[in-house]
Amino acid sequence: MKRHVTIFGTSLNPGSRSQVLAREALRQLTSRGVSATLVDLRDLALPESGRGGAGHAPDVQAVRAEAKRASHILFAVAIYNYDVSSAAKNLIELLSDDELTGKTVGFLCAAGGKNSYMSVLSFANSLMLDFRCWVAPRFVYATSGDFHDGKVVGEDVLQRITQLTTEMFAREGE
């Protein structure tokens, strides 16, 4: 399978900092010649999972096709109340084994404070155990001080994005 990274920007907030992380990861990947796509959930009309016919909605089909095309997936998530956002969880519920199993996944997290840095672990565990995804052992966690004027300004955060977008290919020996 040809290497392709799909980045799911899962925050629905118009001023989302996790979407800023997603755009930075996309910039870094494409600057290195890696095929990558950003899927911004704010641009889609995804139904709530569990509703009759949700899987047949056009935007769900588009998201599934993009996930299936990916060799690697990055989830850019907002952390709320010590967990990933409900939009991120809904996205996973709309996807299936066909789109996720065996993929390497990584996380770009934006949070209000430093104390919830382990919040992404239940989401990662679900992907690992339910879908047999490979979880990149590094993730990015940024707080409000790491952003200014819609850009990542935290040097350590920029470095961690570079590390994540490089090391997520280690499983393949690339």
Q: How would you portray this structure in words?
A:
It is built from six helices and nine strands, in the order βαβαββααβαββββα. The chain is of the alpha/beta class and 174 residues long. The chain is globular. The protein starts with a strand and ends in a 7-residue tail after the last helix.
Task: Give a summary of the structure in a few sentences.
The protein has 174 residues and is an alpha/beta fold.
Mean pLDDT: 91
Strand content: 15-25%
Query: Which sequence of SSEs, written as H and E, runs from N to C?
Result: EHEHEEHHEHEEEEH
The number of distinct β-strands equals 9
Rg, Cα atoms, Å? 15 Å
Uncertain residue ranges:
none
Total number of helices: 6
State the end-to-end distance. 13 Å
The secondary structure category is alpha/beta
- Main pleated-sheet profile: 7 strands, mixed
Helix content: 25-40%
Envelope shape: globular
Please write out the topology:
Elements: E1 5-9, H1 17-31, E2 36-40, H2 58-69, E3 72-80, E4 83-84, H3 86-94, H4 97-100, E5 104-111, H5 121-131, E6 134-135, E7 140-143, E8 147-148, E9 151-152, H6 155-167
Helix pairs in contact: 1-6
Core attributes:
7-stranded mixed beta sheet, two-stranded antiparallel sheet, globular, 9 strands, 37% helix, 174 residues, alpha/beta
